[in-house]
Specification:
FAD/NAD(P)-binding domain, 545 residues, alpha/beta, Enolase-like, domain 1, 26% strand, 33 strands, five-stranded parallel sheet, globular, 4 domains, 14 helices
């Protein structure tokens, strides 16, 4: 069987390597327009910041090494320009000579990836306008930083790559601002209040996020001097474009392959609607594991997993790719990391679930162990079935641990009740006696069962606490202008508080407020609410103190 693969990097090379292991008799050829067959695109921002020291460390395989390891043929600097499904032929141009040749196939795999979106604005031809897609892009930006040519930078795009670049530029002493047209950074990845927390942490670290603005142009004579936004012009020595990516599928016009916004539709077996043509990676749609709807997941993890399944199907198996959960983790400016899997609260409501959420601040390891910190954990569940729908976590520690537990739980359709007493690993350097994930689940269960009555940070911001008297429940008075309640002294009716009075109980992280509520309920107080996440997560407005 002759298998032709268009594109290298992640999905294409995974298909080729796995297929040759499955069936050595297959004749596998990769055509890729780049000179590199496989490189670590996700590592580029860390090369900019000199966390990864050598550019060579980003190159996973050279074409020669890959061919030797796998037995697949590799033709670099060769770009597909036309697909003819009827003739089982692809036309491709040699980017060195300009000559166009035909390549026949029995099975075709399209893994052409995606390219950075470049807006049509003036000034992009100026020096020190950068993209972040190839090792050469990262090398150019790092060289400009290290030669002192860049002291102020604007990063356009508040997604993963943009924020990772911003973190690494800031670490190199570059004053950095992130701009994005969306209302918040990490749009669609986190719920708005979680993104806002990230923005505040970025600001604390000197990286400002300017959201809700459009990039309109670049000003300067020879090099970047200012970046023009819809709000104002900003002084800058460099602009890094990280606005997003677009699938490399323009050459498929007229092929009959079904696409949505330029992204190839595939079935669970990674097949397109055209016989003998498959697709994987950033150019292809998969499906959402929870909703079953088509989903675009331009992630290295998705490319490798789907590519591996595709190869096994080419070798004669019939394996479905169950789909993605929108899982991701990211290291951010401000010394925090963020992770998410499953549906956000916003997405779950849009999908029609009866949503309940709980936000808690939990220890990430034994509080007395050096380096202990906190996780901000937001769990989303379906009220009717009590199934876990989504996990969002922010913290200075191993947020991937929390995220991956969520992946397993959601993939197996677990209810919150099944998750609260799992036998998680514990030792002071790693975790807490009641695991942070289980702690967050217990808070959610208490809320679902009516044991905990609370307002979410979003509800506080929306003004739903109006009419409630705020009460300070901290170990010592901490909220100026608020009456103070000491949990340890509550042993009956509390003077000055009516049993049917609406009381909003607030402490640093939410735990002591819950304990106070529990005790007040025991003595007949019926209208108490706590603020989830406490002042650790929500800044109490001065006028409401």
């Amino acid at each position: 069987m002759k298998v032709l693969i268009l594109g290298g990097v992640a999905a294409g090379t995974k298909v080729a390597a796995k297929l040759k292991r499955e069936d050595r008799s297959c004749e596998v050829t990769i055509l890729t327009k780049g000179k590199d067959i496989s490189y670590a695109g996700c590592g580029l921002p860390y090369y900019v910041g000199d966390v990864i020291h050598e550019k060579s460390e980003l190159v996973v395989n050279t074409p020669e090494k890959f061919a030797g390891l796998t037995g697949a043929k590799v033709k670099t600097l060769t770009e597909a320009v036309e697909v003819n499904p009827a003739g089982h032929v692809v036309k491709a141009r040699d980017l060195t000579t300009g000559e166009v040749a035909e390549y026949s196939y029995d099975k075709l795999v399209i893994a052409t990836g995606a390219s950075p979106f470049v807006p049509q604005i003036p000034g992009l031809n100026l020096r020190n306008v950068f993209q972040m897609r190839t090792p050469e892009d990262a090398e150019a930006l790092r060289e400009a930083v290290e030669t002192g040519a860049i002291r102020r930078a604007v990063v356009a795009g508040g997604g993963f790559i943009g924020l990772e670049v911003a973190e690494n530029l800031a670490a190199k002493g570059v004053k950095t601002t992130v701009i994005d047209f969306a209302p918040h950074v990490l749009p669609n990845f986190l719920d708005p209040e979680m993104s806002e927390y990230v923005e505040n942490k970025m600001a604390d670290a000197g990286v400002m996020a300017m959201t809700g603005v459009a990039l309109e142009g670049v000003l300067g004579t020879e090099a970047v001097e200012k970046v023009q936004t819809s709000r104002r012009a900003m002084k800058a020595d460099a602009l890094v474009l990280a606005i997003g990516i677009r699938p490399n599928t323009g050459f498929l016009e007229g092929s009959g392959i079904e696409m949505v916004k330029g992204t190839i539709l595939t079935d669970p077996y990674m097949r397109t609607n055209v016989k003998d043509i498959y697709a994987a990676g950033d150019c292809a749609m998969v499906r959402n594991r929870q909703t079953g709807k088509p989903a675009w997941s331009p992630m290295g993890s998705t490319a490798n997993i789907s590519g591996r399944i595709l190869a096994r199907n080419l070798a004669g198996e019939e394996i479905e790719y169950p789909g993605v959960l929108g899982t991701g983790v990211v290291k951010l400016p401000g010394g925090v990391n963020a992770g998410r899997t499953g549906l956000t609260e916003t997405a779950a409501r849009e999908a029609g679930y009866d949503v309940i959420t709980a936000l808690s601040v939990v220890d990430d390891k034994a509080h007395y162990y050096p380096g202990a910190g906190s996780f901000i954990l937001k769990l989303t569940a379906d009220r009717a079935t009590r199934k876990l729908l989504g996990v969002q976590v922010i913290g200075s520690g191993a947020v991937d641990k929390i995220t991956d537990i969520g992946v397993t739980a959601i993939s197996l359709g677990a209810s919150v009740d099944q998750l609260s007493s799992l036998d998680f690993a514990y030792a002071p350097p790693f975790s807490t006696a009641i695991h942070p994930f289980a702690h967050g689940v217990n808070v959610l269960i208490n809320k679902m069962d009516g044991v905990l009555d609370s307002f979410t940070p979003s509800e506080y911001r929306e003004g739903k606490t109006e009419g409630y008297r705020m009460v300070d429940c901290s170990p010592a008075p901490a909220l100026e202008g608020c009456p103070y309640l000491d949990l340890t002294r509550i042993d009956g009716e509390v003077e000055g508080f009516g049993k049917e009075e609406k009381l909003l109980l607030v402490c640093a992280k939410g735990k002591r407020a819950y304990l106070t509520q529990n005790r007040l309920k025991a003595y007949g107080y019926t209208e108490t609410k706590t603020l989830e996440g406490g002042t650790f997560f929500t800044e109490i407005e001065p006028e409401e103190k």
